[in-house]
Amino acid sequence: MASGVATQQFVPIERVRDGIIVLKTGELRSIIITSSLNLALKSEDEQQAVLSQFQNFLNSLDFPVEFFIQSRKLNIKPYIELLQARSDEVVEDLLKIQIKEYMGFITRFAEETNIMTKHFFIVVPYIAAGTAQKSSSLMSFGTSGDNLAQDSAFDTARIQLEQRIATVTQGLTRFGLRGQKLGTEEAIELFYKLFNPGEQDHAAPKLNQDK
User: Is residue 79 domain-shared with residue 54, that is, in the same domain?
Assistant: First the structure.
């Protein structure tokens, strides 16, 4: 069985710093989570207007982006635990019975029905000049060999990436969507569950990451 170290060799991420994903190649990525629109509920004219705004949004970008949709089975465990906590506080026997029956109904319904939740993300990249070269200072972002020059290079790259993030989020608002950049812990949580699909009910371990 492969060791944890061997498994990590297949993960392209070096670390997460200030909510920015630093790849092993030195390239940077930032992830924006967005709201969604249901075009089916809009009139034909409204649909055309949204699609036109989306086309204009894409044409306004001078850098590539990646759209990513994540589907997960709905995790009702936190809700069941909340109901159990409320049940423990209740003193009336009848109300306790009703809460217990409701918990049983919700649990059976979730087991019999494949309820999925969807999250929508936009990945914004930044590749500094010379990143592909092994001598690039980007390769050392966040490592034990940090120095002022490397921190300065990271800050410069971060400014460029944040400008791209602002461009994307502002473009989304033009057709009624909201976007928010994932922070360090949120990004780690996302990738942890992507690489560990069998542990959707577990939180990502607390890693020693720069915030």
Answer: no
Contact 140/100 with Cβ under 8 angstroms? no
In-domain check, residue 61: yes
Crossing angle between the packed helical segments 44-60 and 148-173, to the nearest 10 degrees: 160
Instruction: Examine the domain organization and report whether 49 and 124 are in the same domain.
Output: yes
Instruction: Say if CB 36 and CB 130 are below 8 A apart.
Output: no
The verdict on 143 and 178 lying in the same domain is: yes
Report the candidate in 203, 208, 210, 196 with the shortest Cα–Cα distance to residue 8. Answer: 196
* pTM metric for this prediction: 0.70
Pairwise CA distance, residues 92 & 82, whole Å = 18
Domain-embedded: residue 41? yes
Q: Are residues 15 and 31 in the same domain?
A: yes
| Segment holding 123, helix H or strand E | strand 116-126
pLDDT in tens, 113-146: 777 788 899 999 998 765 554 434 444 444 444 5
Q: Which domain holds residue 86?
A: 75-114
Residues 157/128, Cβ–Cβ less than 8 Å: yes
